[in-house]
Amino acid sequence: MTDDAWFGVTPEPVADKIAQHLADGTPSEKAILIDAFAGAGGNTIAFARSDRWKRVYAIEKDSQVLACAKHNAEVYGVQDRISWYEGDCFEIIKNELAAMGEYAVVFASPPWGGPGYRTDTIFDLSKMQPYSLTDLLWPFQQLTENVVLYLPRTSDLRQVTQSHNGEGKLTVFHYCMEGASKALCAFYGTFNLSNSKDGT
User: Fold this and answer.
1) Which of 45, 61, 76, 200 has its CA 20 to 30 A from that of 69?
2) pTM, whole model, 2 decimals?
3) CA nearest to 146, candidates 189, 176, 178
4) By C-alpha distance, which of 145, 95, 136, 88 is closest to 114?
5) Could you report how far apart the first and last alpha carbons of the chain are, in Å?
6) Angle between helices 42-49 and 63-75 (to 10 degrees)
7) pLDDT tens digits for 17-35?
8) SS3 180
9) pLDDT, tens digit, for every residue of 2-20?
10) C-alpha distances in Å from residue 35, one per residue of 69, 79, 80, 142, 154
């Protein structure tokens, strides 16, 4: 596994809890999961292992990282449940997966680059690089209202709230390990997460 892929992979307990929340809280007619930034496959594999999805579509632009993700899926025995795409997620969703929007959920764990994401008490999501919160959310919501963003634990929740267009609900979960928050997920759309328990 490449150094960048190792650094960016979601811890397995967190990935499993996110997959559980999505499996339990997604409307039944949504049968397709699109992982827009698959990386080394941590979340993709957890989604495939949940047995909730008819198909998981995983997109990764780095060929070496994609090779790692495919290998990891084989290790976990879920390679046959995943379709892999190499390239830009926005272009692939627009040009190759657009017809699936009615049945799809988009999950996105984007790069968190930018000044201060590790050190700021509150992280300004407009400065997240290479994609700001708006850069991410708007294109995905052209496909489906059901979008989940995996964001830094220090994300400015006011910006997350302001990004909600008023359709459906907005629910935010913090995911923790050993009492420490690792990240948060913002669930936009028609998810029913009222019976889900917070964190891991």
Assistant:
1) 200
2) 0.92
3) 189
4) 136
5) 25
6) 30
7) 999 999 999 999 999 999 9
8) strand
9) 545 544 678 899 999 999 9
10) 12, 14, 16, 16, 22
